[in-house]
Amino acid sequence: MGSGGSRAAQVPDAERIRRETGFSQATLLRLYHRFRALDSNKKGYLSRMDLQQIGALAVNPLGDRIIDSFFPDGSLRVEFPDFARVLAHFRPVDDEDTGTRDPMQPEPLNSRMNKLRFAFQLYDLDGDGKISRHEMLQVLRLMVGVQVTEEQLESITDRTVQEADEDGDGAVSFLEFTKSLEKMNIEQKMSIRILK
Amino acid sequence: MLRAALPLLGLPLAGAAAAEEPTQEPGSPGEPLPGLVLFRWQWHEVEAPYLVALWILVASLAKIVFHLSRKVTSVVPESCLLILLGLVLGGIVLAVAKKAEYQLEPGTFFLFLLPPIVLDSGYFMPSRLLFDNLGAILTYAVVGTLWNAFTTGAALWGLQQAGLVAPRVQAGLLDFLLFGSLISAVDPVAVLAVFEEVHVNETLFIIVFGESLLNDAVTVVLYKVCNSFVAMGSANVRATDYLKGVASLFVVSLGGAAVGLVFAFLLALTTRFTKRVRIIEPLLVFLLAYAAYLTAEMASLSAILAVTMCGLGCKKYVEANISHKSRTTVKYTMKTLASCAETVIFMLLGISAVDSSKWAWDSGLVLGTLFFILFFRALGVVLQTWVLNQFRLVPLDKIDQVVMSYGGLRGAVAFALVILLDKTKVPAKDYFVATTIVVVFFTVIVQGLTIKPLVKWLKVKRSEHHKPTLNQELHEHTFDHILAAVEDVVGHHGYHYWRDRWEQFDKKYLSQLLMRRSAYRIKDQIWDVYYRLNIRDAISFVDQGGHVLSATGLTLPSMPSRNSVAETSVTNLLRESGSGACLDLQVIDTVRSGRDREDAVMHHLLCGGLYKPRRRYKASCSRHFILDDAQERQDKEVFQQNMKRRLESFKSTKHNICFAKSKPRPRKAGCKKKNGVANTAATNGKSPGDLGFRDTAAVILTVESEEDEEESDSSETEKDDEGIIFVARATSEVLQEGKVSGSLEVCPSPRIIPPSPTCAEKELPWKSGQGDLVVYVSSETTKIVPVDMQMGWNQSISSLESLASPSCTQAPTVTRLPPRPLAAEEPQAPLELRPSFAFPPSLAKAGRSRSESSADLPRPQELQPLMQHEDQSHLSPGTASSHWCIQFNRGGRL
Questions:
Q1: Nearest Cβ partner of B560 from A62, A148, A168?
Q2: Domains of chain A by range and CATH?
Q3: In B544-676, which residue ranges form alpha helices assigned H by DSSP?
Q4: ipTM of this predicted complex?
Q5: Signed CA dihedral, B558, B560, B562, B566: sign only
Q6: How far apart are CA B354 and CA B747, in angstroms?
Q7: Pair B475, A180: CB distance under 8 Å
Q8: Distance in Å, alpha carbon of B579 to nearest chain A alpha carbon
Q9: Whole-angstrom Cα distance, residue B721 to residue A109?
Q10: What is the DSSP string of B759-817?
Q11: Are the beta carbons of B220 and B245 closer than 8 angstroms?
């Protein structure tokens, strides 16, 4: 995957990024190579196009949303530190993370909460901190596929929202979102082994 | 099994059978018969199947007895008890016959007893879990088994060289390796029997169990290779043979898996076309799976692997294709067969152990083997886990490793394999048999007994059972996609990537090919969960006697229900999807929807007992086979109800309570009866397809309002006498039909007289908007209602009570409620002209009291009907007559 140079020294600002993301040297290097490979004309950042050209991402129902999450606040380019920061959500949780963390420091990016927050913002398109019924419907439409009729989809949506909605406002807040996933092993489900 | 069972139970009876022998040549012309024989003993003709049946019966009865005491079974695993029972039975036989002739026959075991168990475990294997842990499972199954076999064999040989095994055990290195190969494999039957009762967490379970299933290929190969090496003699084994041995490992395992997958494909494809012969669906599943097993066995591939893969591969498509009933049948038959086979296996194991003539005891060998299998298993697990943990996202901790080492149970497979050894080639067979029996007994009894306390003591994470929720299902899918996407971005094509690719492939091609269209449409996992949640709600709703407001309320305490969209009713949905499970529960969500009200009325009527609406999960299930029966019954019902109606109308005419058209009714009812059901169906054949049922038949219910009797003198009676046409369907098309039928050009359908208050009235007050519910509100009712719903419940009760209280004045006429056929009819019920159609007096009274109370009720405004918009918009009041035409489906053949 490393079509560019392969020396560690090339990662700019490596120490700072590592501190922030918790990636190992090797992983960071790997990501950097990948970053360079995706960067089609060596402009030093990734544009939306660069990510969209990844073949499998195009067929992924959530592909667009994932790409969007790399470009917060309508920015058009993603630099390597941001790239690494997004991917850091998927770093597996180590023992060191939970054990010897300095309470003064902000929560690591791969904490359960941050993993959930990442997933949450994929649902919450308008960023108002709530998954509205409409947003839920959109996600479900992406996930469920064509076999289910619109009407059925609506009722699934209703039920899904009702299930999670505890304060009865017809939308799922982040708190309710985490609650509905209480029993799930998020640390395990939202981690990729190679991103140590 | 057949032959196996013979000697045991046959013994006491053999004498009797032999004595009968001469007299048992039926119809042989040469012999002068002593006339007609009244009683003839034909034992030997039924002997074999009889014994098998008895045998299984004994095992099953034993199982029942074991489970009589919870205390015993909670401590002692069933497998232990069965082995002990076998020992006792074997002892009895030994005492009676003076010799033990019986043992678990390898042929029986491999051909008949093992397949059901493996099929069961493969079919119900949690595939996601299996594939998530596939790496670990395969490592343990392949490397672990090889390791166990070689180390155990070598160590035993070393033990012999060291002189700790008596010299009379004549075995070389190869013999010991052969023995090691058969004793080292973890046994699926034993593991399943013990671990099912232990409830460790899923990951641990799937690793141990998956290993025990998948190691079969390794065991088979090792056993065969070693066996042939022994047969050849170690001197003649060449290097190419070793290579062949290694190659055969791949051939046997991959070949077995391939056979399984091919049959899975065939099975899925076949079930796609069984739409018209639903009844053979379960049979197909078993036949093709068994064929896979036999085919693999025939080609000396790994049969266990074949069946496992077959079950694993076909399940998704088969479950989607076959009908609900078939699914249940498959499930239960599979479980029954598997548990039956398991029971028999353990019992036979116990019995075979009694046969000491095949034993040859050597303490050194037995103790050495016991020690080595435990030691090397533990060592192997620790080493492999250490390696695996480098790659695993969630490392297996020490406790897991302890359980895995300790859970390496040996069982009937090892025993059957050791019995299969050829004594002429393996002189130490008897010693091996004894050792195997001891090992199996030790692992099943000692380890089986202690593993539960051990798991408790080590605080192994138990499996927690929680209900699936839509959110979890949805989010899990989201996470899968997110991870796949992230793997794409990172550029590492790992597990998630391939799984995603596979799912896309499956969706695009496989499912299209293997699932029938209708199934494919509803076969989305999220939809599936949604559907199952609804079913569960419905079941729990029914389980609770239907008293709780809504079972949905249990899971969704804070439903913002009333504002949801009209189209969300499950009933509607199910209509559309064609699966007609009766799920009225969610109607609470959609009180305001006209369709739901109409549904409510329909339900109301159906519950009210026209013909008991058979639960129809699939509209066409088994139709061929129950058709006649059902139709007969229905015809009878039609007849009876017609008679009832005739009697009533007779009575009412006598009392000069007029309903329009009361006279023609009997005749037409009669004609209806004669002409049968097809008539009705034909007449209304064009009823709207969105009912979701294939064959719909419009049935016009003629229902008199209670005013006919009770308020005949009031001012509105005139209009009421004219009655109201109640049309269940909101569509104008139906209205047309309704009008037509309202004028009784269509033969009237049988009169419905509910035998009891409909449950809809009892529990779903909002549906009919009837105040008379109060009568049925018991004090228990409120207790069952969950706390968070009690307030609402109480409110509704009190409001209903206040409505029903006598102080209330008479009902506003405008708001008269359509969906009350029940109350409307019952005033006539008490007429008992003929005892054969008599109503229970209490019911009749109840009906009357209800109708009385309801007559007084001012209808709550919000519950106003049904009729309001439909009636007034589509029906001119003039056409209204005293008939409530309700169009509904009465099942396929009515």
A1: A168
A2: 12-89 (1.10.238.10), 108-189 (1.10.238.10)
A3: 551-555, 570-577, 594-607, 623-654, 664-675
A4: 0.89
A5: negative
A6: 76
A7: yes
A8: 13
A9: 75
A10: HHHHH-HHHHT-GGGGGG--HHHHHHS-HHHHHHHHHHHHHHHHHHSTTS-PPPSTT--
A11: no
Is the distance from CB of B685 to CB of B667 less than 8 angstroms?
A: no
Predicted pLDDT of residue B691: 41
Sequence-distant (≥ 6) Cβ neighbours of residue B491 within 8 angstroms: A1, A34, A37, A38
- The verdict on A175 touching B (C-beta cutoff 8 Å) is no
Q: State the best of B201, B476, B486, B515 to mutate against chain A, taking most chain A CBs within 10 Å.
A: B486
- SS3 call for B462: strand
Read off the DSSP letter of residue B234: G
Q: Average of pLDDT values for B487-511?
A: 81
Please, are residues B705 and B720 in contact by the beta-carbon 8 Å criterion? yes
Interchain CB contact of A162 with B (< 8 Å): yes
Return the CATH architecture of domain B87-458: Up-down Bundle (1.20)
At B213, the amino acid letter reads: L
**Residue A143 and residue B464: Cβ atoms within 8 Å?**
no
- Where are chain B's structural domains? 87-458, 470-539
**Residues B565/B508, Cβ–Cβ less than 8 Å:** no
Query: If residue A173 lies in a helix (H) or strand (E), which one and from where to where?
Result: strand A171-173
Mutation target vs A (from B474, B554, B575, B583; most A CBs, 10 A cutoff): B474
Between these two residues, A106 and B344, which has the higher pLDDT value?
Answer: B344
**At residue B775, does pLDDT exceed 60?**
no
- CA nearest neighbour of B257 among B202, B315, B309: B309
Q: Tens digits of per-residue pLDDT, B51-86?
A: 888 888 988 898 888 888 888 878 888 888 888 988
Q: Which ranges of chain A would DSSP assign to H, the alpha helix?
A: 14-21, 25-38, 48-52, 55-59, 63-70, 80-87, 95-99, 112-123, 133-144, 150-164, 174-180, 186-189
Name the pTM for this structure: 0.63
Q: Whose CA is closest to B106, among B368, B303, B239? A: B303
Q: Identify whether the C-beta of residue B864 lies closer than 8 Å to the C-beta of residue B769.
A: yes
The encoded tokens of residue A117 equal: 């927050």
H/E stretch holding A77 reads strand A77-78
Q: Would the CB atoms of A155 and B570 count as touching at under 8 Å?
A: yes
Confidence of residue B668 (pLDDT cuts 50, 70, 90): very low
